[in-house]
Amino acid sequence: MISRMIYALMAAAILLPCTVFATDSGPSNTVGFWKLDVQPGFTQISFPLLPDNKALNNVLSDQLTGGATVEESDQIIRWNPTSARFQIAWYNSTTSQWAGEFSELSEAEAYWVYVQPDHPAVQTIVAYGNVIEEPTYNMGAISPGYNAVGSVWAMPTSLTNAGMSGFQGGVYLFLSDLIMSYDAASGNHTYAWKNDAALWQGNLTEFEPCKGYWVYIAPGHPGFNWTYPQPGPTGLDSRGPGGYYPDLDALEIIGRPPMPTAITNTTAPASSAKGGAQ
Q1: Is the pTM of this model over 0.85?
Q2: Strands 97-100 and 224-229, how do they pair?
Q3: pLDDT value of residue 15
Q4: Residue pLDDT, tens place only, 128-141
């Protein structure tokens, strides 16, 4: 069970762009909120806390910059693992409603926020939700190929403590399953994989609150159902003995993960409607 003490310490413990707070709301559950700054371009995020009503209209409302058309609006982009394609949702400032190809969010999924280049330099997303207190949380099926996954943890959590028992390694990194995270500042990805001794390798060592990740299941591997234990306040060594950091340029062998393409209009008027936090 997640200790409520973890959340009381969070303001001092997490020096991250994402901040998560929680408090007891009554005898039966703990609720909290998180906030995250986003800037023009793509930011890969997750939603660690969500309310029972997970609709975009309820969670985000008008917090991002909307427009009369999708080309004028900021966008939330989702990876559909079944069709292996991206889906776009956007805030229609004319109807004050979210529109597009999906309408609800999930703690288990990663998303990309795309902010149009002529929109405010910093926008803040604030959301509230229920703290997950069960001893396990079912992330669902991790299928062969690419899976965009979120992190429901309120603190940085080492990979070895994330319950990914079905994650398979390989003699060479391009034969292993992979975890990848997009860094908006550099435009590059960080990576983690396992060698044939099942030891974690790479420069990605933990899951962080509010960040999104790719989990890539290599060809010939079956995938797995990811039901993991909630971590305690201290993580484990994410590499294990003998961990090493080889030259990540070698990952060009397997190629980079897919990136979404936003719908843009470089001549969009600067008067797009904006609501919510700046």
Answers
A1: no
A2: unpaired
A3: 31
A4: 887 666 666 788 89
